[in-house]
Amino acid sequence: MNSFDVLSPGPAGGRRPGRCLIVLSLVALLVLPSALLASRLWEHSGTRRDITTRQDRGIGQLGALQELLSVLTSAQSAAVAGDRPDRAPIRRATAAVDGSTLAGSSLSAARSWDELGKRVERLAGSSATGPQAYAAWSEAVDLTVLLMSEVGEDSGLMLSARLDQYYLADALTRRLPLLTVASGRMVDLSRLAKAAPESRPASIAAGTARSVLGRISADTAHVLHQALSLTGDRRLGPALMASMDRLAGTTLAMAPIQSLDPDPAAVRDIGALAAAQEHGRAAALDLARTGLTHLSGMADDGWRAAERDRWTATGLGAGAGAVAVVLLVLLSRWARRAPAPHGTGAPDRGEAPRAPDGPHVPHAPPRSGTSGSADTVTADGGLPRKGRMSRVAP
Question: How far is CA 306 from the centre of its chain?
Fold first, then answer.
């Protein structure tokens, strides 16, 4: 074995597996993180698109249910007062709920609406008045409030990462319906208490409804102000403030602050209460419409953000794929280069030339004044005869 064999780096093809591994590692380091990020971003954008679609559908259903709730509270007050409720607004409201695809949403919401629709239809043709009408209509009103809360949960409106959207949805799906119901029941219970002045339970119920109305009004105002203080939309405040002020004014007229009321236990004038309640019901309905419109705009913002995420994911995936293709093409071209035959072709760049096998023969320097053929080495490895004789001669 020659010393050149030890120092020789070997054939060019012997080092290519290591180079291939390096290139493949570079491909993985450059492509895999981008591909994973694109996949997660695409999945996240799809989830946001689904939530936004559910929110849009829920906003339409809540608008129809808010209209129905307003009509039911008005019909309840009319029935308690001894009048026949107007059936035309009830039919329009129920038809609007039917057209809002509520029956095709979640199974529990569809069942709740099926039961509520049948109950409302029966009540519209009922002739009950007084306490009986109050009890019958209260069940339908309570089911409507529960259905609105259920729609708010199922639609994903309460799952928004935006705090202004969360507080506004909470006010419109939970607080405002309760405020509408509480104002109507205060009028009805006050009417029943005035019709039976000797009935202490009726007076207690009217006073309780009054305190409940004040508390719900304060909670609703607090949640709405939270939404206004946390929003970046400059249009939301001016759009809601007018309806909020009207609603707060009518509520304060119906249920004054206890410290400002000279006779908290006294039953109010029913006519004044009914007028204030009607104004408050209209203000609550306007507030719900305006708020739901802005909720729809926030849902549209979420849809556009999801679309931007989807385009970003597409760009990342395309870039990662392009980098992978370029690197793999370069790798395949590198791998197809055939190595030079051992000892015949030109050596790889950066490699030392390999010496032939066999004993090492030193080259004698050419002698001056003689031809190159006289100084060539013979086959036995020695000097030619002439050269040997010249060296022996003195």
Answer: 8
Of 131, 136, 122, 125, nearest in space to 82 by CA: 131
Angle at 172 between CA 168 and CA 174, to 5 degrees: 110
Mean pLDDT, each 10-residue run in order, the chain (394 residues): 44 55 71 79 81 88 93 94 91 90 76 90 89 93 93 85 89 93 92 84 85 90 91 84 88 71 60 89 92 88 83 82 77 64 50 53 52 47 48 44
Cβ atoms of 87 and 123 within 8 Å: the answer is no
pLDDT at 360: 53
Got the DSSP string for 34-52?
HHHHHHHHHHHHHHHHHHH
Q: How far is CA 207 from CA 44, 76, 164, in A?
A: 51, 19, 34
Q: Which two tokens stand for residue 293?
A: 């419109």
Nearest alpha-carbon partner for 76 in 68, 15, 272, 390 = 68
Half-sphere exposure of 85 (CA within 13 A, CB side): 30
CA 246 to CA 249: how far, in whole Å? Answer: 5
Query: Residue 336 has what pLDDT?
Result: 67
Report the distance separating Cα 380 and Cα 236, nearest Å: 107
Distances (CA, A) of 303 to 42, 106, 308: 13, 22, 9
Q: In the structure encoding, which two tokens stand for residue 10, read together?
A: 């070997």
Tell me, what's the pLDDT at 169?
92
Name every residue whose Cβ is closer than 8 Å to that of residue 371 and which is 6 or more positions away in sequence. Answer: none
What is the b/e burial string over 106-132, where b = at least 16 CB atoms within 10 angstroms of the residue's CB?
eeebeebbeebbebbeebbeeeeebee
- In this prediction the pTM is 0.70
Q: Tell how far CA 100 is from the center of its chain.
A: 23
Distance CA 363, CA 361 (A): 6
pLDDT of amino acid 328: 74
> How is 217-259 classified by DSSP, letter by letter?
HHHHHHHHHHHHHH---TTHHHHHHHHHHHHHHHHHHHS--GG
User: Which one, of 281, 285, 262, lies nearest residue 273 by Cα?
Assistant: 281
